[in-house]
Write a structure and sequence with these properties.
- The structure is a homodimer of 540-residue chains.
- In chain A, 62% of the residues lie in helices and 2% in strands.
- With 540 residues, the first copy, chain A, is mostly helical.
- Chain A has a domain at 1-130.
- In chain A, helix 7 (159-180) packs across helix 8, helix 9 (200-223) crosses helix 17 and helix 12 crosses helix 17.
- The termini of chain A are far apart.
- Chains A, B: It holds the Pfam family Peptidase_M32.
- Chains A, B: This is Carboxypeptidase M32.
Chain lengths: 540, 540
């Protein structure tokens, strides 16, 4: 950010410049107005992206690309406009440490909430302002090229074809990080695009802890004689009935269809805002539990979004905290609710209504089926609750070392295969099901993967705290409520402690206020060791 | 438009200002770039509107309004930016009559096509530039208020509740017209928003001619003993089968589903661009012919949009001519194809496949059923091919007189009822089914209604010309082709003569090039007198 205060000469040229007559409150309101504008554009882009993935006919791509790129450039212009910087500067001067030094200090201050809003606006402004527009466009073009090369390379199992594009993206992203802060670890800077409020060292320590817990636990499971495969959930389960079942699950959990929709897309996702947040899912006719799990996962995202304060739409108080917090909400419902015995006590009769062939399935059957661990699976998006994090760990280590310059692109396949060997005891058969399996790097999204695991860790910590508080209160305990299909207390706890705050608190502060502790892997470790220890008859 | 040429001082402040080094070609390219940007925003808004009417859950309105209003204001900013005016000025000076007077004239000229593009960009720029932004926002707020009052007023049959809002909108729109041109008939100025290339006098003369033809023809039909009601098409026709049938009709006509979709909405409409143009329809279980007709109508719109040159997306050469030309394409298919014997020769077997109860229907039955005239119908959107235009005529006369100050809002209901009495021999039972039936005036859209009739008139003229040319060529005549389900020659003719030109020619020029004559009601008169004379056994 340009830290020079606006000069009078500058001011004369801007019709809406306040001069010195504007109060701090007015400057704050003006900043908020601008923020609402770029967020309206950003949420409009979100509608276009949803449409592109769910509704758009194939031929629509050329027009859609132009629409999205025009909106993205307008959003960038609104965010980085000189006026944004001037307002931030003005607010900073009047309310911050500078104020005391100024002769015209009026003793104005921002409330803690307003200060949080300014902090959350300043962060993306400074980042966008620091990076030259040409570089942003170069990255966007390079990724769009890389994406189509990656699609072919994966189909042809041809890493060499993708390698130069990956190399280029690593270079461009390093350059990007250098513009943001030349003195810091570039991977840390890139990670902050997705997780701005959690230092990379904290994230790395949590991932280390996960590895320490999960590698031996999964080893033990591999050695265990227990087999959780359940025949009842194998066969053919027609798509329409699966969709009906997914809707039943959403109704049971309390998804608000008046502010959302359920559709089908190639990759399940959730998109929208507090007024209109939509879920997608997909169906595999041979695996009815997969769509249930994925729908419940997306429900968690949507419930968070629906719970953001409506009156703050378009401002940080009405926006979600970052990726790990969002993922915590989806993982909480997917794993702690949807993979619990209690949930299946309530939901199995519904499942059997839709699939009478499964009429002899027991709650224990369902519980075992949704909690099977597959250490031999090589594909992240098909991974179970435990091995998932080792898939993430391999990717995290590779992308971190690439960005830090400690790994050559040419060595990625071997490093990938070694990582799988080391953590999961398997090797991919080829690069298509190895280091070419995920789309993220072809978007240049280095630093994204860790947020998946951080979200699971946070989910365990939040669920434990919710459970403790609900169980200590009056009425049935949380497990009994879930078994009765009563999610009210859980929703209330999440709303009170997470959703209603928007981006008011930084991540650790949010978690600390909700659970009494900063984010750590402790609750997750307890949860998986106890659950899977029992299921597979192994001790940690 | 500000007609002062850019001063050097102005130029210094704009980083992309050409100074005097920019060639005419460069200035033209820069203008086109800007135009593509505002059109990308405008077409993005189109996606949001489609979504709102087809997909959006009810709760989404507050966010959607903010998104649409942000985009509309950005589009306006891009269109009216100083740079747009400067570029138009620069191009005008270098290529126009001014050029000869300038010492630095480089003898550059625009091609006829480029000149057309500049003309089509200048027109909306000058209009937007002439009207103060505050007034635009005032109109937008007043209409949004009027819209919700109108909804209640119609439900309650309470014109008095709506009257002050209508009054306000008339005033604001008169003010708008005054800004655009204080010396001209304000209704003519408003009409130009929808139909910029056809003088209101021409439009009015055509509407007069329609009245002269249709009032006696409908009188004669009312007196005729012929009854075209066909029992076969009465009963219950399930919605899903109607949808299958609508898709069959679209397939038969050649709708490109890879660049479009068919969905259901409260009011059928078509929206999109040459890469992605979508149709909606609606189903009435008691009337299967209505959805067929409405789907064919929308097909005509979509076929036009799909036929616009892809390489010119976002510029006038890739955009459609105005409302009457668009409506000519929908009416051509709805009336001249979909209401013909030939079409039903091909389509009736398909209809009977989907509705076996209608298996004894003959082509003549279908032809009569789709061409019934209902002089006692009071609702425009339910009107037949003939009475439709008298509904339009009543509205046209009222809105014209309101805007010109020749009619008071308080007198609208009486004037409406008199108009219906005079033209159709009926009186609405109340204002809800009278002057409150249409949404247009609550949007402040004065000048829109005539384009519906102009479109039908143009459709008849274009179809007659296409038929003459195809019939004069080799192979079967057009009627035989339609009966065989072969629309290739018709599509080619329309593409060659209408679609591929985008907004290259002004309306009359387009029609003249296509048909050899400027737009007139002659072909329409011939068509309806011959067709309905035969059907109802009446002579004009």
């Amino acid at each position: 950010m340009d830290t020079d205060p606006a000069t009078p000469a500058d001011s004369d040229e801007r019709p809406d410049d306040p001069g010195s007559d504007r109060s701090l409150e007015d400057a704050y309101d003006a900043l908020l107005d601008r923020c609402r504008r770029w967020n309206a554009v950003s949420s409009a882009s979100g509608v276009l992206s949803w449409d592109q993935q769910v509704m758009m006919p194939e031929g629509g791509t050329p027009a859609r690309s132009k629409q999205l790129s025009a909106l993205s450039s307008l959003e960038h212009d609104l965010l980085t406009a000189e006026e944004t910087g001037d307002l931030l500067e003005e607010i900073d001067e009047r309310s911050g440490d500078h104020a005391a030094d100024r002769s015209d200090d009026r003793g104005e201050t921002l409330s803690a909430e307003q200060a949080a809003v300014v902090r959350e606006i300043r962060r993306p402004y400074e980042r966008a302002d620091a990076v030259p527009r040409d570089l942003v466009e170069e990255i966007s073009e390079a990724s769009s090229e890389a994406l189509s090369v990656w699609e072919r390379a994966r189909a042809d199992d041809d890493f060499d074809a993708f390698a130069p594009h990956l190399e280029r993206l690593v270079e461009l992203k390093r350059e990007y990080a250098e513009h943001v802060d030349p003195d810091r670890d570039p991977y840390a800077v890139l990670f902050e695009a997705y997780e701005p409020c959690l230092p990379i060292e904290r994230a790395e320590a949590i991932l280390e802890e996960l590895r320490g817990t999960l590698v031996p636990l999964i080893d033990a499971i591999r050695e265990s004689d227990v087999d959780l495969a359940v025949d009842t959930f194998e066969g053919t389960f027609p798509e329409e009935r699966q969709e009906d079942l997914a809707r039943e699950a959403l109704d049971l959990l309390g998804y608000d269809f008046e502010r959302g929709r359920l559709d089908v897309s190639a990759h399940p996702f959730t998109a929208g805002n507090q007024f209109d947040c939509r879920i997608t899912t997909r169906f595999d006719e041979s695996d009815p539990l997969s769509a249930v799990g994925s729908t419940i996962h997306e429900f968690g995202h949507a419930r968070y979004t629906h719970g953001l304060p409506r009156e703050h739409f378009g401002t940080p108080l009405g926006d979600s905290r970052d990726l790990s917090v969002h993922e915590s909400q989806s993982r909480l419902f997917e794993n702690h609710v949807g993979r619990s015995r209690a949930f299946w006590e309530r939901f199995l009769p519904t499942f059997r209504e839709h699939f009478p062939d499964a009429s002899d399935a027991t709650v224990e059957d369902a519980y075992e089926a949704v909690n099977q661990v597959h250490p031999d699976n090589r594909i992240r998006v098909e991974a179970d609750e435990l091995t998932y994090h080792l898939h993430v760990l391999v990717r995290f280590e590779i992308e971190r070392d690439l960005v830090r310059g400690d790994l050559d692109v040419a060595d990625v396949p071997e490093r990938w295969n070694e990582g799988y060997e080391e953590y999961l005891g398997i090797r991919p058969e080829n690069d298509a099901e190895g280091c070419l399996q995920d789309v993220h790097w072809s978007h240049g999204n280095f630093g994204y993967f860790p947020t998946y695991s951080l979200g699971s860790v946070m989910a365990a910590q939040l669920y434990a705290a919710a459970e403790a508080e609900i169980d200590a209160g009056e009425g049935p305990d949380l497990d009994a409520r879930v078994a009765a299909g009563d999610f009210e207390a859980l929703h209330e706890w999440l709303h009170e402690n997470v959703h209603r705050h928007g981006a008011r608190y930084e991540t650790d502060e949010l978690v600390r206020r909700a659970t009494g502790e900063p984010l750590s892997a402790a609750a997750f470790t307890d949860y998986v060791e106890s659950k899977y220890g029992e299921l597979y008859d192994v001790s940690p």
